[in-house]
Amino acid sequence: MQVIIRADASREIGHGHIMRCLSLAAALRRRGAEVKFLCRSFEGHAFATVGQAGFHCQPVNEDTPMPPCDWLVVDHYALDASWESAQRGNAKKILVIDDLADRPHDCDLLLDQNLNPEGPTRYLPWIPADCPQLLGPHYALLHKNFSIERAGLVPRTGRIGKVLICFGGSDAPDATGRVVDVLAEAFPHLILDIVAGSANTHAAQLQERCVWHPLITLSVAINDMAPRMAHADLFIGAGGSMTWERAALALPGITLSIASNQVMLCAALAERGAGVDLGPIENFDAKALRKEVARLLDDAQRMRDMSGKLAALCDGMGARRVSKIMMA
């Protein structure tokens, strides 16, 4: 089976689309499919990340013809039915990955891995009437390492010793730096494991913050997020795809949305008691962050409750499920 994935990454877009598509690509490859990525050469692109995962990444522009394929996977907010319909001559089937439900699609399968109270009705105005929908974190596209780590996960005590801080591949607003400044001053006894993406332009400044603090470490462009999450006690970072990685490993967290498409999910988790949401980064409040961390340090039961509610939402097997459906 020949699969083409059309997705982009940049400092503005972030790397979430590429990362979840890489998880699907790996699951498809394990089933014998051949997978290739088509990506624009934006500043902060993820060509190296795709290549390191063992997939060919072809640079494209608006006029690049679509190679023939059995499945075309489209994970892109700027593409809709007009573009998808134009690819029908070369793509036998089209899978659209979306979470906005704000534009029409011409697809044979739709995947939205996030929580949406509206359920299937949300996409009815936007997709063909006979298009199946794969909805919810049961289908979240995660690297296989998350299901492996989940199998050996030790029950969480709710006590906080190590905090994992990550705001994705680019973190244009430097949310990481703001959070580190607050925690390093207010909670110097905590171990801070900071992860920055390859497109993060603030890495040098972050490193300067870490030099003088023996309990703060910074890692850039890592590929071991699953074990890091398994061994952390609290997460502070963005929403998006990392939400389901955390859920698979029952890692409770405090979220700050750094993109508009993260706001709804972060709020939904907070309403379910599965997380703490401090809203968009534009409204960052250092005092509120200190207050929430202090509360969680004193409330192990609440931490355990959040862990359990998260773990019930996602088991890390979504990429396997979606790849099986596509191959069938």
Kindly describe this structure:
Helices cover 34% and strands 20% of the residues. With 328 residues, it is of the alpha/beta class. The strands form 2 sheets. The chain has a 7-stranded parallel β-sheet. Strands 10-9-8-11-12-13 form a 6-stranded parallel β-sheet, sandwiched between helices. It starts with a strand and ends with a helix. It is globular, with a radius of gyration of 20 Å.
Summarize, please.
By secondary structure, this protein is of the alpha/beta class.
List the helices and strands and how they pair.
Blueprint (H helix, E strand, L loop, with lengths): L1 E6 L8 H15 L3 E6 L7 H6 L3 E4 L9 E7 L5 H6 L4 E7 L11 E4 L20 E3 L8 H8 L10 E5 L8 H12 L4 E6 L6 H9 L4 E5 L4 H7 L2 E4 L4 H7 L4 E5 L5 H9 L4 E5 L5 H12 L2 H12 L6 H10 L1
Parallel strand pairs: 1-2, 1-4, 2-3, 4-5, 5-6, 6-7, 8-9, 8-11, 9-10, 11-12, 12-13
Helix pairs in contact: 1-12, 8-11
How many beta-strand segments?
13
State the separation between the terminal residues, measured CA to CA: 11 Å
> What would you report as the Rg, rounded to the nearest angstrom?
20 Å
Note the main sheet: 7 strands, parallel
- How confident is the prediction overall: mean pLDDT? 95
Beta fraction of the residues? 15-25%
